[in-house]
């Protein structure tokens, strides 16, 4: 399998993950669904298009390619990368997290620490 060298903290992975589920969509819809701002989504889509993981049609609809699907599969199969990705995704929503969710995250972190 090809190593796609995607940073687990990058927004490209969040956009790819969304497109792997949805299949295809416009940048504005991706922004709304992921909670990422429009400019960030557009820049991520440009980089993903340049690397061949996403294609854009004549109607400005973006679709994930086979290499994009492979990158998402690689993310899901690599435990360490997946954990970094999830941590980064949670960090992007830190302002929206309430006290109960913080307590849950703290309990989870303690459980993980016990296991290692």
TrEMBL record:
<dbReference type="Pfam" id="PF13412">
    <property type="entry name" value="HTH_24"/>
</dbReference>
<dbReference type="InterPro" id="IPR036388">
    <property type="entry name" value="WH-like_DNA-bd_sf"/>
</dbReference>
<dbReference type="InterPro" id="IPR036390">
    <property type="entry name" value="WH_DNA-bd_sf"/>
</dbReference>
<protein>
    <submittedName>
        <fullName>Uncharacterized protein</fullName>
    </submittedName>
</protein>
């Amino acid at each position: 399998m090809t190593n796609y060298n995607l940073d687990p903290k990058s927004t490209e992975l969040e956009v790819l993950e969304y497109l792997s589920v949805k299949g295809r969509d416009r940048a504005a819809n991706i922004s709304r669904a992921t909670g990422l701002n429009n400019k960030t989504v557009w820049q991520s889509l440009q980089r993903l298009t340049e690397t061949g993981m996403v294609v854009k049609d004549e109607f400005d609809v973006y679709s994930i390619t086979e290499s994009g699907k492979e990158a998402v599969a690689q993310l899901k199969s690599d435990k360490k990368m997946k954990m970094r990705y999830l941590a980064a995704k949670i960090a992007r929503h830190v302002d929206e997290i309430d006290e109960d969710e913080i307590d849950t995250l703290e309990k989870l972190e303690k459980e993980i620490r016990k296991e290692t």
